Amino acid sequence: MNKPKMATEKGNSKIAMLLCQLEKMNEEVLVRDVETARLVTAKILHLIQTQVQFYSWFSVLGRGRRVGVFVSKGGTGVLFQILISASKELPPSEELMFQLHSLLAKVGPKDRKFGVKARLSGALNVTVDVVKQNLQNSKVLLPCLQVLRIYSNNSVNAISLGKTGMVEIIFKIVGPYSKKNTSLFKVALDALGALLKSKTNARRAVDSGHVPVLLALYLDWHRNDTRHRCMLIRKGLLVCLRNITNIKLGRRAFLEADGIRILYHSSTECLPVRTLDPLINTSSLIMRKCFPKNRLPVPTIKSAFHFQLPQVPPGGPVDQLYNQLSGVDDVVDESDDDEEAEGETDTENDEDKDQCSLNDDIETDLNKLHPNRNIGRPFEELKDYQKFFSELSEDFQGYSFDFSKSASTTSPSTYLFSSSSARFSRPAEVPTAQTPSPKHFQPPLLLGGFPIRRTGGGGSNVGSDCGSEGTEDEAGDAPLLEVPDTAQLLPLHDPDLYVEMVKGTQSVPQYAEVAYPDYFGHIAPMLKEPLLERIYGVQRSKIFQDIERLIHPNDILDKVVYDIDHPSSMIEENGESLKFNSQFESGNLRKAIQVRKYEYDLVLNADINSNHYHQWFYFEVSGMRTGTGYRFNIINCEKSNSQFNYGMQPLMYSVQEAIGGKPQWVRTGTDICYYKNHFARSSVATGGQKGKSYYTLTFTVTFIHKDDVCYFAYHYPYTYSTLKMHLSKLEDMRTPQIYLRQDVLCETLSGNTCPLLTITAMPESKSTDHICQFRNRPFIFLSARVHPGETNASWVMKGTLEFLMGTSPLAVNLREAYIFKIVPIDGMKDLNRQWQNPDPELHPTIYHTKSLLQYLAYIQRAPLVFCDYHGHSRKKNVFMYGCSVKETVWQSDISATSSDLQEDLGYRTLPKILSQIAPAFSLASSSFVVERSKESTARVVVWREIGVKRSYTMESTLCGCDQGKYKGLQISTRELEEMGAQFCVAMLRLKRLTSLRNHQNLLDLESDIIGTQSKNVSSCTTTYVLEEDEPSFLEAIDYSAESNDEDAEPESDVCGDGQENFDQLSDSETIHRK
Q1: What is the C-alpha separation between 857 and 854, in angstroms, rounded?
Q2: 166 by DSSP, 3-state: which?
Q3: Nearest-CA neighbor of 434 among 501, 482, 495?
């Protein structure tokens, strides 16, 4: 290894010597000696070229070091001066121009300021003149075009070159298919593609009629290049089209030239050849960009349901929503950057821009990074919350501590959700399943406006038609269908009790139906469900099917089969269309359109009082055939990426399977992918951003039962009525040793009660010591389900509650160690970003939950741990977000003293424990960085204002795990409930650790991870970002490309070596809310 190193040093010194010789020639005006200049540049070029060849064998020593040395010594500027001086000779030396531009083509990619230097020195114009003078001299023209492409990476240079007519000149160079000059054609197209990144040049090309020319050239090369030896030329033509179609004018010209049809047919012919995938991918991107933008097929993007708020802040988003005229909010934005001034910056590449924006979201204000317990409210306002902490003043003088007696007479308890106490009660239709024989459903059984159950054969039997009414006599002749008996497997589920709870649940749509899965219950499948392996080319296939709609419009049915905006839109009874329904609690499907015989476009409803947030879906399908694949396209998704691209499947619940003894949600679907579609998002719904599109989630299902009733859901449903049922059943589990109190914290905007649970152990006796120990237990504060679509958080909370109410020794010890305050469901509205300044009328659940914490802070009883359970749609595993001053500073460029970085490391203890005992938990996915965009979340506010150092958000995946025991598996309710239970076990271990007299033991316990974490943080600057931690997929997948954006990412090219980095159909887009 020493010989190559010595050779490298020798070569570098030789380059420095030759460069010094060139500088002398320049200084002493000896450049007139053209032959000497030519020999010196030839030697430098030879050294650089031999070095590149040399390091193809010894790549371990690094590549291009000689070029780097040359640039660092100022070689670029010297070459430009030699070039300018040589151009003054009449005529210029052809050989010298060839060698100078060949050398510049090698040096340019290594010099970040190459374009700026060329323009300021005047070398840019010299190269242009050389090109114009040597259009027929391919030897000189080739390196000149290579240099022009590098010049064009600078946007100012690209505009300047466009003004000199360089776009038109290159079009003269590029011609129809030929076996000659292919290298020249390839380089010319590379230069043209770089020039056309400029919107000004793209408009110039469109105005000159070059779009049809490019399409004709591509078609010619496609037809004649039968052996695919000129794929790079074909790719270069597509890159030019891709850059032109970044502007609206270019897309219009592309459509007028019938570009979609041309690229569609040519791409279809390329499909059998795997090596032509780069052409297919680029063609697909262009076609999708140019696909005419459509409105969503709904009358308005506003939610189909809304209710008047107690007060509407003037000028706020809700006020704007209320005041919008009908038909205004869903107008397609036709504007793009055509009218905007093109930024003339000297940034050579996007890396500089990316570096500038890197870590911009990290909090850099040290004053905000140190908790200051700024409660912000006088104690007089918080006195009313004393009633929620009666355990702090309870003397238990009226209670008997003979634990052999029934729980109802020995310990305090309040039950909130009995149907008799419900303020609102309404009829509810009880669902039933169809018999295995192909008979139609029977009408529900109603008595006095309320459904009743019929029993027989040892089970509960009912008849139903889910939506149609009938008399008891009419239903009497119906076959009695047995409801699966899940009492032993689901101790917290009771169908009768669930129906009673539904009657007292308030919903804006006033649903009167009960979904089969919610009525029957769900048993987690015993078999593990692996992540779905993605088939290569599936996304491309689906996109091409979408493009066929434009090419063959007569094949599209476009038949509305379900529409909650127009309930009268019903399909014929004996038709061949599926039947849809979502008129039940937590159901979400706004419209279903039959596109083809077995394909349906589905539109989700926005959150109530909103015009966006389309993620959760839950709907019913019936009337299916067996042995046929039905394709479902949810066409108004908003997030730029999804775990559906990484192995996640939607969930399906079959009623026929439930009757057969398998009442369970199962992962289902094939050909699953998630991609951007041609439905435009209004700027009204994107915060003023224009040019955004919706995304499509598509999956195919083959049903195994004819005329079954099946339900599809984004994740395992968990309704508010289910929570009420579970809390009622937990009350039945209470033993005399458990202190359980259920209070009504507040009433939600929709009129439902928000429960507050207090769980701990009863004191051993009425003695002063036991009462004192009872009152002085540390508080643990838990909350869940702030976002309505994050049902996994509710399942985790269910696991926590069941563990806390259990009889195991661990549960007993845990109750004796802490007092748990739990808000199991925060109103199920998107309220997580309202914690800084919640409004008591607009955000009652958040306002009163925060008030509870403020009260505890005032009485010096702030919780030991605060944890908010959430769900995450873009990452795998279960993980935590916490708050740390030190780790936030590590991620930023701010300077801080050692005193600024001092903090208790105890915030890492709980995540560390969870990583050791919970198989689904990943410490590597956790982060403790404080971001500005999260300063209004519960985690940051409780840490900053209440002073809780162990303030966390615990995120549970909606997909599955990529590490540990469950690696490669999709997550189910079993693992989610297990996670909730393991959280409790971790709390018990935390108690033991924090009880250590020598606090240094706790620090020593964590020292093994602190050092490694600091290394990981310093080496990976994106650990704090809520990005997907996924490897690049084999297929080029366009998840997040906003193909309407004008600032398309630059093409990555390698100069002069005949190779090219094929562009992936993917651009970065800012992550939206989780």
Answers
A1: 5
A2: helix
A3: 482
**pLDDT (0 to 100) of residue 320:** 60
pLDDT in tens, 180-212: 889 999 999 999 999 999 999 999 999 999 999
Phi-psi region of 509 (alpha: psi -120 to 50; beta: other; left: phi over 0): alpha
- Report yes or no: 5 and 50 within 8 Å, Cβ to Cβ: no
Q: Where are the alpha helices (DSSP H) in 152-276?
A: 155-163, 166-173, 182-195, 199-207, 210-224, 231-244, 248-256, 259-270
* Half-sphere exposure for 708 (CA within 13 Å, toward CB): 19
**How many whole angstroms separate alpha carbon 591 and alpha carbon 686?**
22
**What pLDDT does residue 885 have?**
82
CA–CA dist 456, 463 (Å, integer) = 12
From 289-298, 452-461, 851-860, 1043-1052, the region with the lowest mean pLDDT: 452-461
pTM: 0.81
416/770 Cα distance (integer angstroms) = 29
Helices (H), 504-578: 516-520, 538-551
- Residue 839's nearest CA partner among 239, 419, 400, 309 is 309
Beta bridge partners of 530: 969
Q: Which overall architecture, per CATH, does domain 538-713 show?
A: Sandwich (2.60)
Q: How far does the chain reach from its first CA to its final CA, in angstroms?
A: 51
How big is the CA angle at 15 (ends 11 and 20), to the nearest 5 degrees? 150
Length of the chain: 1074
Domain ranges of the chain: 7-73, 87-164, 166-290, 538-713, 734-893+905-996
Cβ–Cβ under 8 Å, residues 1043 and 1037: no
* Strand boundaries in 650-764, DSSP class E: 651-654, 666-667, 670-680, 693-702, 709-713, 738-747, 753-761
Lowest mean pLDDT across 259-263, 315-319, 432-436: 432-436
Burial of 878 (0-12, 13-18, 19+ CB in 10 A): buried
Cβ atoms 198, 246 nearer than 8 A: no
Residue 456 has pLDDT above 60, yes or no: no
Helices 199-207 and 210-224: crossing angle, nearest 10°? 80
Q: Which two tokens stand for residue 344?
A: 């003339």
Cis check for the bond before 509: say yes or no (omega within 30 of 0). no
C-alpha distances (whole Å) from 254 to each of 162, 262, 290 are: 21, 10, 7
Q: Give yes or no for a contact between 243 and 291, defined as CB atoms under 8 angstroms apart.
A: no
CB count, 10 Å around CB of 390?
Answer: 12
pLDDT tens digits along 473-488 = 443 444 444 556 666 6
pLDDT digits (tens, 9 = 90+) for 258-300: 999 999 999 999 999 999 999 999 999 999 999 998 889 998 8
Tokens 């429960």, residue located: 755
SS3 531: coil
Helices (H), 75-209: 75-87, 94-107, 114-121, 123-133, 138-151, 155-163, 166-173, 182-195, 199-207
Please tell me which residue in 731, 790, 887, 955 is annotated as part of the active site: 955
- The mean pLDDT value of the chain amounts to 78
Out of 3.30.1330.10, 3.40.630.10, 3.30.1300.10, 3.10.20.740, which CATH number does the structure's domain 734-893+905-996 have? 3.40.630.10
* Cβ within 8 Å of residue 482, ≥6 positions away: 456, 457, 459, 460, 461, 659
Element (H, E) at 462: strand 459-462
Q: Residue 166 in contact with residue 131, Cβ under 8 Å? A: yes
Rg (C-alpha) for the chain, rounded Å, is 34
Annotation says 955 is catalytic: yes
Q: How far apart are CA 466 and CA 581, in angstroms?
A: 9
- Shortest CA distance to 980 belongs to which of 784, 842, 787, 826? 784
**Going by C-beta distance under 8 Å and a sequence separation of 6 or more, which residues neighbour residue 204?**
162, 167
> 3-state DSSP call for residue 245?
coil
* Whether the Cβ atoms of residue 882 and residue 923 lie closer than 8 Å to each other: no
